[in-house]
Amino acid sequence: MSKLRIGILSFAHLHAYKYAEALLKRDDIELVGLFDEEDQRGNEAAAQYGIARMTQAEALIEQADGIVICSESRLHYSYAAAAAEAGVHILLEKPLTTDGADGRRLIETCKNKHVLLQTAFPVRLNTSIERARQQVEAGVIGDIIAVSATNRSKMPGGWFVDEARSGGGSVLDHTVHVTDVLRWMLRSEVATVYAEAGTMLHDIPVEDCGLLSMTFENGVVATLDTSWSRPRSFPVWSDVTLKLIGTAGALHVDIYNQSGNLWTNDGSLTHERIYWGDVANEALVGEFIASIQQQRTPCITGEDGLRAAEVAWAAYDSIRLGQPVAVIHY
Amino acid sequence: MLRIGLIGAGVMGITHSDAYHQVAGARITAVCSRTREKAQPIMDGWGAAYYASVDEMLNAADIDAVDICLPTDLHREAVVKSAAKGKHVLCEKPIAATEADAEAMIRACRQAGVTFMVGHVNRFNPEWGMARSQLLAGRLGTPGTVRTARNGSMPGWSTWFHDYGETGTLLDMAIHDFDYLRWCFGPVRRVFSRSAGSGAASHSLTMLRFASGVIGHVEASWAYPAGTPLMVTLEIAGSGGVLSLDRNQSHPLVVFGGNTESPPIANIPLKKNQFVRQLEHFVHCANCGATPLTSGEEALAALRISLAAIESVRSGKAIVLEEEAG
């Protein structure tokens, strides 16, 4: 089999660097180049990875069998739609799109053009999460009745805090990963959402604190903290924690609690936690490549991306109304 | 010397009795319990008299104050009767299961001119006190979110906890945190809560929006399997930093083997644990007439948050609380 030609479309989202590193470790693909809207960022990334920088997104799409899109969220749709029209497979950073109708249209286009569309939900491929799901499936904790979850990080700044470019603040940024994992574990869709949000911690124009309460169609209740509330000295960038409460037991997951402690003489009274577990971004990229090679649907689809984004959009509706709302499916 | 009549000889009665041994200026002189065998070890420790009923104790015992460690539904009667006899009152939390009961208890104590304090012991726990001090000292900047969890299995030492039904975790467990958080962050404006589980063995997830804008998440559970240790955590995230407490990660002393059973209420290695500090405060207030930190009014305010959470669970709606006076 000839090597798949993969391109990276924009390094606006920092995950692009993680995906680039994961792709470069593989010998079954060729990284054909990158496109970036910004000269400096694009040139630096091209130099760092020794790959070509195209000056037009179309040029990159033309040369690739598959592309990884890590642009600003508001641009997801236009880039992904262009790739889909060109018959190029897509690994798309979350959120899938910033508009429900766009998300549905993208999924349809990909279907019609026989293009594979994978949403970048690496948390689902985290080994502890996979192990937790196996235990849930095996009935170790009985039927899940309630979930308390967090997905919090430091404040990302930049275009993330500009609603016109990101589509929302911490609620949109951090609702989707855990929602995806829970939909997958519970085999059920989110039915209703209640949310509180506010800008409490940083001088930014979008919310930095968010808290969701969800009900699933199967009756499970869950809460999720989506805040950008980790201080600069916090020993990891973000957390993903789940407390799964079942009828026969409970299961706690803390995916980055697989790390060593590092203290240094740099002077600040803190330490780093250095992660040593499996790297989910490598599994994410691997699944994208494998699905193209095997011409099969990726395990995380565009539909999954849309379903998770719908929950974040419902949260914004609830915040406006001050009461729970039903999730709208596009 | 404040002479205490201890009412109730269950786990909390024993816990308070143990703590009074460290409290200067107070002694238990009477113990009231339906079952003498339960009261006996406490009576032996103090040389205290036994009474089979609250009425009997209030009529006959030489006491200045009562310490009520009864199931919640018995609080009102015991408090109102004790106040009518001029006794200072310390009552275990939650103050009551209804606002009407709590208001009647507060009224009775006020009319009798006696001290009325409720056992919201968290406020006397140095671990939680440290967190509040850091918050008030500005170390965390402006607070944005606060999360607490109080999770474990159904208390195994007494069956009456099941009588709470589905409201148990909100009325008996989360109320510790409602009280503490209100003390730290001021009045609560809006409450939204969901709960799952069977009967009292439920898992509740409550969201609080404080008038200050702070967003709170209060988790309380009796849904864990039997034998699960109580897991208590607190995390405050502010513009200047994050502070977190996790009792299960705080182990200055670990014992392996041996033949001692772990007590139902953990005895933290402190010269004066939170119960001793709480009782010292009660004795101080009873003696000088100062309003207790955890007065009946404060306990009622915490109860109102619990009741709003219960109403939210039942209605599926967010509940807006009336503005607190002052």
What does this structure look like?
Chain A contains 10 helices and 15 strands. Chain A is α/β, with parallel strands linked by helices. Chain A has a 7-stranded mixed beta sheet. A 6-stranded parallel beta sheet of chain A has the order 3-2-1-4-5-6, sandwiched between helices. With 326 residues, chain B is α/β, with parallel strands linked by helices. Chain B folds into 2 domains: 113 residues, 3-Layer(aba) Sandwich (Rossmann fold), CATH 3.40.50; 168 residues, 2-Layer Sandwich (Dihydrodipicolinate Reductase, domain 2). Chain B has a 7-stranded mixed beta sheet. A 6-stranded parallel beta sheet of chain B has the order 3-2-1-4-5-6, sandwiched between helices. In chain B, strand 11 and strand 12 form a beta hairpin. The longest helix of chain B has 20 residues. Classes of the chains: A alpha/beta (330), B alpha/beta (326). The interface between A and B is large, with 39 and 39 residues.
- Low-confidence parts of chain B lasting 5 or more residues at pLDDT below 50? none
Task: Compute the number of structural domains of chain A.
Answer: 2
CATH architecture annotation name of the largest domain in chain B? 2-Layer Sandwich
Q: Whole-Å distance between the termini of chain A?
A: 38 Å
The shape of chain A, in one word, is: globular
Strands side by side in the biggest sheet of chain A = 12-11-7-10-9-8-15
The mean pLDDT of chain B is 94
Give helix % range of chain A.
25-40%
Q: Using CB atoms under 8 Å apart, which protein chain pair has the greatest interface?
A: A-B, 39 and 39 residues
Biggest sheet descriptor of chain B? 7 strands, mixed
Oligomeric nature of the chains: heterodimer
Average pLDDT across residues of chain A?
95
Poorly predicted sequence stretches spanning 5 or more consecutive residues of chain A: none
Overall 3D form of chain B: globular
Q: Strand arrangement, largest sheet of chain B?
A: 12-11-7-10-9-8-13
The fourth-level CATH homologous superfamily of the largest domain in chain B is Dihydrodipicolinate Reductase, domain 2
Spell out the CATH superfamily of the largest domain in chain A. Answer: Dihydrodipicolinate Reductase, domain 2
> How many β strands of chain B by DSSP?
13
Q: Bin the helical content of chain B.
A: 25-40%
Instruction: Tell me the strand percentage band of chain A.
Output: 15-25%
